[in-house]
Recover the amino acids of this structure.
């Protein structure tokens, strides 16, 4: 969902924010971070909430360090293969996609968020690897919709086992 500048000005007026049209248009320009001529939900939320705090940024970067198996400063296909198992993905099971295609899509998720936030939605901004700024941008977007630090920490631990307290063992049929 997006709003163009006319819709944005109308919302400001209808919700009685107390800004005149010129101020509303200036605010629109601030929220339209990718300068597309529209304000998306993510842009609006990011404009209201702002950047992740230091606590959340540290948690996100701890997860990045776990994923960056070779400590190269980027996460690529080789890093992700040891952590993210695509064999059970429905498209892999059905034969529509290979495991590598699913893994590249996973990596692309991070790059798309970064490219969009920086006004570059072209494919040339995406190279199949995730840098620290791309990773951080992705979690900045997620962080905007999570109110409490403890819940953000719980979500990150559940996703990336940051505390190392979740034990998985290989059994006959895989991990259990």
């Amino acid at each position: 969902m997006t709003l163009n500048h006319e819709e944005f000005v109308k919302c400001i007026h209808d919700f009685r924010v107390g800004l005149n049209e010129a101020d509303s248009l200036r605010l629109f320009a601030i929220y339209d971070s990718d300068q597309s001529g529209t304000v998306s939900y993510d842009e609006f939320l990011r404009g209201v909430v702002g950047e992740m705090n230091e606590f959340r940024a540290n948690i996100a970067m701890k997860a990045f360090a776990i994923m960056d198996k070779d400590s190269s400063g980027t996460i690529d296909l080789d890093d992700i293969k040891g952590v993210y198992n695509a064999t059970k993905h429905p498209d892999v099971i059905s034969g529509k996609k290979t495991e590598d295609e699913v893994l590249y899509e996973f990596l692309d998720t991070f790059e798309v968020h970064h490219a969009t936030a920086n006004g570059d939605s072209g494919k040339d901004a995406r190279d199949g690897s995730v840098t620290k700024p791309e990773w951080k941008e992705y979690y900045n977007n997620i962080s905007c919709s999570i109110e409490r630090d403890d819940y953000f920490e719980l979500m990150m631990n559940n996703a990336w086992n940051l505390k190392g307290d979740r034990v998985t063992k290989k059994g006959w049929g895989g991990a259990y």
